[in-house]
Every structure is written in C-alpha cells, then in structure tokens.
Amino acid sequence: MADNVKKVVKFGGSSLASAEQFKKVHAIITAEESRRYVVPSAPGKRFKEDEKVTDLLIKCQSASANGGDYTTILEKIKERYYSIIEELELGLSLEGEFELIANKLKYGCSRDYMASRGEYLNGIILASYLGYEFIDAAKVVVFDVNGKFLADETNKIMSARLATVEKAVIPGFYGSMPDGTVKTFSRGGSDITGAIVARAVNADLYENWTDVSGFLMCDPRIVENPKPISVITYKELRELAYMGATVLHEDSIFPVKQAGIPINIKNTNAPADHGTLIVTDGDEHKSKDIITGIAGKKDLSIIHLEKDMMNAEVGFGMKVLEALCDMGISFEHLPSGIDTMSIVVNTSYIEGREKEVINEISEAVNPDVIHIENGISLIAIVGRGMKNAHGTASRIFKAIASENINIRMIDQGSSELNIIIGVEEKDFEKTLRAIYKEFIG
Fold first, then answer.
1. Burial of 193 (0-12, 13-18, 19+ CB in 10 A)
2. All residues at 6 or more sequence positions from 30 whose CB lies less than 8 Å from its CB, including other chains
3. What is the rounded distance in angstroms from the CA atom of residue 133 to the CA atom of residue 73?
4. From residue 97, how far is each of 117, 179, 212, 233, 235 by CA, in Å?
5. Which long-range contacts (CB under 8 A, 24 or more apart) does 63-71 make?
6. In 3-state terms, what secondary structure has residue 383?
7. What is the tens place of the pLDDT at every residue in 59-100?
8. Minimal CA–CA distance to 23: which of 89, 82, 94?
9. Do residues 320 and 343 lie in contact, with contact meaning Cβ atoms separated by under 8 Å?
10. Residue of 3, 12, 9, 22 lying closest to 197 (CA atoms)
11. pLDDT class for 390, splitting at 50, 70, 90?
12. C-alpha–C-alpha distance, residues 368 and 340, integer Å
C-alpha cells in the first residue's frame, strides 16, 4: 500500500476490554502501515456480567459527590488497567494519573471529567504498546462556554497538531471547554472523535472496529441470519437509522460525510471479514441487491383527517401542523390525498391527550371527519437500487398480501430511495419477514 495512504482507526470498548483484545488490536494496526491515527474507547465488558470501565468511573464520581465511599470502586478500576499493563508486559505506571484522579474526587470533580478518564487512560496504554505518540483529546477537541462542540475550530486545531505527527493515539469521547474543563460527547462519543480525526488528517478511510462484522439487512431478532450489508450510502444509512435500525449516530458520521471520507465498519475478532463500507456515492459500488436494508418502528398512531376541497384551502396543512406544534407534538410522516390527510405520530406524544388533539385540530381547520387510530407500525424498505428496478413496489405489496396482511399506509419519497409501509403492530414482524424473503430469499 502506498506510503501516503492514511487511515484513521477507532476501536470500541469490547475491542479493548482486556490484554487479549489489545493484542488483537495491535496485530490489526501493525498489519498496515497506513493505520497511522488511532482512537480508543474505554475498556468495555470482558464477559456478560462484567462492568464497563466508564460505568465504574461514573459510579465512582457519584459516590464521591454524595459523600460515599468511592475508594473501593477506584481500586477496581485500577485493577482493570493494571491487569492489561501487566499482561502486555509494559514498563508503564499510571500511579501519577490515579493520584490526580483520587485528588480530584476528594475535592470534587465533574461527571464529564471522571467519565472521560476511561478513554484517557486506555489511550496512554495503547500509545505505549504501539510506540505511537499520545495526544490528549482535551488539547485538540474544543467546545464553547455552553458546551456546544466547535467543529470548525476543532478541525483547525486538530489538523495543525496532527500535521506534526506521523503516528498518534487520540482518545475518544471528550474534549475541553474554554476554561480547560473536560467536556464529553454523549455515550458512544468515541465514534464522533474518530470521525473528527479522519476529517482533520483528510484520511483515505475511517475504519470503525467493533465486535460485529458490519451492519445487517434486517434485525436478526426478527429475521434469522439476515444477510450483511456490503456497501451502504450515507443517505441509506440515515433512512435506516431514522426508522430504528441500530447503526452509527448521525453526529458520528457527519465530519467524514462532509469530507467525503468512506467508513468501514470492521470486526476486531474477525479482521478478515469485509464488514460494511459506508460511502457518499453508491454508483461506484454496484450491488446485485435491489434493497439495501429493512427497518421499522412500532408504537405509532395515525391522525386521520377528511375535508371536501381540502386541496383548495390555502394553508390547511400548515394550520394542522401548527396546532400540533403548539401542543409540543412532532410528526413522523405526512401522507395525504386530495381531500384526506394523515399525520403519523409517536403514540407516547398523544397518549391520554386524544381529545385535546382532536379539539385543537378541529378548531384550527374544521374537518368533516377526524379520528385517531393507534397500534400502527411503519416499515421502511431502503435501497438505492430501487430507482432502476421495475416492479419493486408491486413485489412488496404482493409479498405482504400473500401473508394476508392489510396495508394501512403507503409513502414513498421523491428520491425513490425508500418505500414506507404502515401495518398494524400485530403484523409488524410478519411483514418484515415477508419482504425480506421476497427480495433476499
């Protein structure tokens, strides 16, 4: 591989939970010279009943803040790190770091500071193990006084700092505010840091290493052994994530999406697996599959409206949405006809408020008919291949009909990237399986 190729590699908590996992990570990084910038998470669970280090750190801070005994928890955290250091036979001491942490706990420290120490300490160990330079994320990731992440300023600082370093470890999950106070991203924030680093060095690829070999086309709890997704576009990813699929958070992909850098989701325990490649443009990565993935949401309700000449009444839809807005209710989808309008909302938003919702909308637009139907679920069939495949919708409807399932709603975006079907909740899983079987087998 060419010397100028740059990869940023991020490893999740399960990938760095023990010395054994550290050895796997070391082998992955050193297998390619291009893996020059590494973003580690805090140690995760080693086994089912184990505790994540981040959770232990938060417990420690909580005990300290409430006047409880935190020393036992802190000793447990120290044991986790020292077991890794000893098994890797590193000539490294973290005593100074733990003394500083203990002092902070004694006199009071923030939850963010304590939570961030998991990545910070793991970064020191990994940098020592690899022989890479350690760069404290607090020096290169910045937030404003209100705790808002400053993307452009961070990019300038990070780019300048990493331009002087050939190989480095930058811990994920945190940065700092103007006064030097540590500020964390939300949980899973190491993914965000990895994307920030990838953008800063203009990486050729951002590898996100975890304990699964990429994304699956459907929920494995519903469809047995679903096919893995080989390539997915950012747009498809967003559609599936919105419909409830467990994929990367939007915040964690925005920096690389903006820079046009592809992401490869890989498995630390099976590094030879292809994983899932996330790209900006799917035209370069043709797939035989018409659909990329299927995902869905439950616990939804539909507010049905009917009114003669609705289409001629200027501002009708706006008035309906304003009424919902005034009640603090957001909507999921808005399929409509000439004289009909349906608003799909999360049931929890209107539960116990049905009369209020009906009254407010009725006062705003005076519909001929209005009623609310609960127990609805939505299923999104997503795929860039649908645009050029004739009869896709027909195949979806045929597959659903063959299972005697009644379709309650149909919605398709203008991009032809997805088709959304509404069915009763009792038919949710059966519908997913029927569609998957039709297109994948």
1. buried
2. 130
3. 30
4. 9, 21, 33, 42, 43
5. 64/105, 64/106, 64/108, 64/109, 65/108, 70/105
6. coil
7. 999 999 999 999 999 999 999 999 999 999 999 999 999 999
8. 89
9. yes
10. 9
11. confident
12. 10
Q: Taking a C-beta distance cutoff of 8 angstroms, is the pair 308, 341 a contact?
A: no
Helix pair 189-200, 250-259: axis angle to 10 deg: 10
Q: Which of 431, 301, 434 shows the shortest CA–CA distance to 370?
A: 301
Q: How far is CA 35 from CA 5, 27, 29, 39, 371, in A?
A: 9, 11, 6, 11, 58
Q: Which tokens hold the place of 401?
A: 């009909």
User: Which amino acid would we find at residue 86?
Assistant: E
**Band (285; pLDDT cuts 50, 70, 90):** low
- Report helix, strand or coil for 381: strand
- For tokens 């010397």, the residue is 3
Q: What CA–CA distance (Å, rounded) separates 140 from 356?
A: 50
Nearest-10 Cα torsion for 276, 277, 280, 282: -80
Helix, strand counts (H, E) of the chain: 14, 15
Q: Specify burial of residue 366 (Cβ count, 10 A radius: 0-12, 13-18, 19+).
A: exposed
**Tokens read off for 155:** 């990019």
Contact (CB, 8 A) for 208 and 265 = yes
What is the C-alpha to C-alpha distance for residues 153 and 398, in angstroms, rounded to an integer?
Answer: 53
Q: Look up residue 266 and give its amino acid.
A: K
**What is the distance between the alpha carbons of residues 319 and 277, in angstroms, rounded to a whole number?**
43
d(CA 290, CA 425): 26
Residues 6+ apart with CB under 8 A from 210: 12, 14, 15, 265, 266, 267, 268
Rounded CA separation 419/403 (Å): 19
What is the tens place of the pLDDT at every residue in 340-382?
999 999 999 999 999 999 999 999 999 999 999 999 999 999 9
CA dihedral 398, 413, 407, 371 (to 10 degrees): -170
Place of tokens 């994540």: 52
Number of other residues whose CB lies within 10 A of the CB of residue 37: 26
pLDDT of residue 414: 65
- Say what the pLDDT of residue 215 is: 92
